[in-house]
Amino acid sequence: MTRYYLDFEKPIQDLELKIEELRSVSNGSDVNIDSELKKLEEKAEKLRQDIFSKLTPWQKTQIARHPDRPYTLDYISMITEDFIELHGDRRFGDDPAVVGGPGSIEGKNFMIIGHQKGRGTKERITRNFGQPHPEGYRKAKRLMEMAERFNMPVLTFVDTPGAFPGIGAEERGQAEAIATNLMVMSQLRVPIISVVIGEGGSGGALALSVADRLLMLEHAVYSVISPEGCAAILWKKDGDIGTADYERAAEALKLTAQDLLKLKIIDGIIPEPSGGAHRDPARAARNIKETVLESLEELQQYEPEKLIEKRYRKLRKIGQFSRSKE
After folding, report:
1. What are 54-66's pLDDT values in tens digits?
2. Which CATH number fits domain 61-317: 3.40.50.300, 3.40.50.2000, 3.90.226.10, 3.40.30.10?
3. I need a labelling partner for 26 at 20 to 30 A (CA). Which of 5, 62, 124, 208 fits?
């Protein structure tokens, strides 16, 4: 499989290409190079851990958008036993940028909903690069209300650059659809667990992440705006903008899982395999499954009224600050 490398992964790429060359040379040869291969693999792993332990916010944004990174349907196929995808918002149509339906994880039933970006040019266009229209959010709302009727916890996977800002989406009530989802999720009488698996952008992400437990994968990002959008608004008047401006914006936005945990915006970080979730999707899926089941076990202790009250208090605490007496 051809692997896609980001710019800052160049040292890893060089080493892994050398490993592949050695493997191909050794095939059918009497020369034993196992010890040399082992040394190079250990060196590559150490280098990978070193690089990924020092990622900047902009580099984490690039990892969150990595084209090989697992998407919602990938995780659903790895953690559920019997997922059934449901379609349509019962008003306008079906939006492929949002997928959802019931499925069980280790025998526990969930209503699972998430953004889906798509792989390959054709599917990405079909799924609008993971940017939902209003009917996508209305489909999600319909499924969440169905989950409440059947007393099923809701699990959402967040991975979108943002809601689609096109004229048609605005004409069909994009802002209203997102706002209605926020209201419905805040009052839902079943546990809600949200996992940001890649890029959590703007209100498009927020519409699926009002939750009792908001979790993020280690290299995911979650922000009100993209670094590029932020840089364009703040600094384009000074001339052309570029990577340095994106890096500056990403740092200022505090969009990494580590920053957001410190700010108490999210409730936990799910570790990723060395080199990112795309390096070992099965392991990333196991980590998600374990954390989701642990969160559900805790949340199921509360009666619906208490669950809603705790969710309300959790949301009200976001953005609290104290003034200095000086």
Report:
1. 999 999 999 999 9
2. 3.90.226.10
3. 5
